[in-house]
Amino acid sequence: MTFHQDGPPRPHASSPSRPARHLRLSASARTAVAALALALGTGGVAATSAQAVGNGVLATSAPVVYPGTTTPIDSWRLIGGGDASATQVAPRWVLASGHAPANGLWTHDRGSTGADAVYIPKNSAGVRVADVSLTLLTDPLPAPQSGWPRLLTTQPGDLVNVLPGQVLFAGFGGTSMDTLPVPNVGWATPAGLRAPGEPRLQAINGDSGSSAFWHPTPSAPPVITAITSAPDVAETTPWTINMQRTFWQPLPEAPVGSSATTIGEWIREQIAKHPEATPPTWVELDEVVSLDTLRPLPPTNVRVSSSTATSISVAWDHPADTRAARTGYRVTWNGGSATVPASSTLFRATGLTVGQRYTLSVRALNDHGESPIVEGTPSEVSYDVRTPPGAVRDTSITEEKSIDPGFLTNYCAEARWTAPAAVAGTTVTSYDVRIDGVRVPSSDVQQLADSERWSVRRCGFEPSSNHTFSIGARSDQTPSAYQTSLNLTIQAGAPLGTVILPATGISAVPRMSTLSGKVDYCIDVAWTAPDTIDGWPVIGYTVDQRRAGTSLGLELQVAPSERTATNCGLNPGLGHNAMVGVLYTADAGRTAIGPQVVTPAGAPNGTPITPVSGVKAPITTRLLASSCANVSWTLPAPVAGAPITSHQVLITPSTGGSAVATSAVLAGSATAVRLCGVSVTKTYKVTVTTKYAGGGTVTATGTAAR
Question: What percent of the chain has pLDDT over 70?
Answer without folding.
Answer: 75
